[in-house]
Amino acid sequence: MLNYNNPQLVIESAKAKEGKITWRSPSNIAIIKYWGKHGIQLPRNPSISFTLENAYSETTLAYRPKDVDSSYNEISMNFIFDRNPNEQFKNKTVKFFESILDIFPFLKQFHFDITSRNSFPHSAGIASSASGMSALSLCICSLEHKYFNTLDDDAAFRQKASFVSRLGSGSACRSIYPGMALWGESPEWTGSSDLYAIPVDDTHEVFKSYHDDILIVSKGEKSVSSRAGHGLMDENIYADNRYKQAKNRLRNLKSILQQGDVEAFGKIAESEALVLHALMMSSNPPYILIKPNTLLMIEKIHHFRKEMKVPLYFSLDAGPNLHLLYPDEVKTQVQEFITSELLPHCENGQWIKDKVGRGPLQMD
Ligand code: 2P0
C-alpha cells in the first residue's frame, strides 16, 4: 500500500525562510458519483468527473519560520477567506494539517497565513471543498518540493497532491487533473486507485470542450453536510446495490467516452444525479436538498431535449443547483433556452457559465 509518511521531511532550522505559494484549483462535477466511504477517506465505489474551469478557489500559503519561543508541537496559522478572518475554516484547516503531519512533518516548523477566495459568489451553494482542499494541498506539495526537491516529476507531484487532497475532502482528489479524472479502483481503468485520482484523457474530442453551466436555484446553506450524508450511507438499505450500480456504470462509460456517445453519456449523468438524491431521501433520517424550482427546470430540460432533439442533460451535486451538460456545437441554442426559460427560476437570475477545464494553475 502506498505510504507517503516520511519522518525525514524536517528542515534544518537555519535553512527555513519565509515565502509564499499560490495555486488556483477548480471545482469538479461528478458524472458517476462518490457517495459512501470507509476507513480513512476511502470511497465505496469509483467515481469520475469533469474538472471545471471558471469555478475555482485561489489559495495563497504564506509561511515563515516559527519564533524560537513558540511550540513546535502545534500548528500555527491564520485563515483569511474573502478578505475576512474565518475561524471555521481555520479550525478545519488546523485539523487537516494535524492529520497529515506524518506526511509533512515540516508543517510544524512554520507559522502560516492562508488567504483564500472563490471565483464563484460567496455561498452560492457551489461545492467549494473540492476546489479549496485541492488548492491547499497543491500549495503544501509545492512547499515540500521547494525545500526537499522531491516532486520534480509532474506525474509524481500530481499523484501526491491528489492523495493529500483526498484526505481533506474526497471529491477534491479529482480536481488535480484537467479534463476528466477518475478516483477509485476500477478493473477497466489501468492504474486506478482508491488512494488518489488518475487523469482520463483518452476520451472522444466532443468531451474535451463540454459545457457545464451551473444554474443557481438556491444560495442557502445545506441542511445536511456531505460529510453527514456519506455517513448515512452506512445504514442505507440500498447501499450495496448502489455501489454495484456505480461500478457497472463506470465499466460501461469507458466505451461511451471513447466513442463520443453524448446521449448514452447524458442518460447516465442524469440518472446518477437522481440516484444521489434518492439515496438522501432514503437515508435515516431522510432529507431533501432539491427545491421545487429544481424539479420545474428538470421538466423544462426534458421537454426542450425532446422537442428540439438537442443532447442537453443535467447533473446535480449535493444541493439544489442544476449543472447543465452539453456539447459545444449546441452552445448557442442551449444558452438561448437557459436565458429565456430557466433563468427566471434561478435565485436572482444567477448562473455560472462553465466548461471542462485545464486543471490547477500555479500562480507565482
Ligand atoms: C461527488 N459529492 O462525487 C459527490 C457527489 C457531492 C455529490 O463528494 O466528506 O465534500 O469531504 O469526502 O467530497 C461531496 O462530498 O465529502 C461529494 P468528504 P465531499 O462529488
Which keywords apply here?
alpha+beta; Ribosomal Protein S5, domain 2; Alpha-Beta Plaits; 2 domains; eight-stranded mixed beta sheet; four-stranded antiparallel beta sheet; 22% strand; binds ligand 2P0
Using the 3D structure, state the CATH architecture of the largest domain.
Answer: 2-Layer Sandwich
Instruction: Report the radius of gyration as a whole number of Å.
Output: 21 Å
How many domains would you count in the coordinates?
2
Number of strands: 14
Straight-line distance between termini? 34 Å
In DSSP terms (H or I, runs of 4 or more residues), the helix count works out at 8
Order of helices and strands: EEEEEEHEHHEEEHHHHEEHEE
Q: Quote the CATH topology of the largest domain.
A: Ribosomal Protein S5, domain 2
The whole-number mean of residue pLDDT values reads 96
Bound molecules: ligand 2P0
Low-pLDDT stretches are none
The chain-level structural class is alpha+beta
Main beta sheet, described? 8 strands, mixed
Task: Give helix % range.
Answer: 25-40%
Strand content: 15-25%
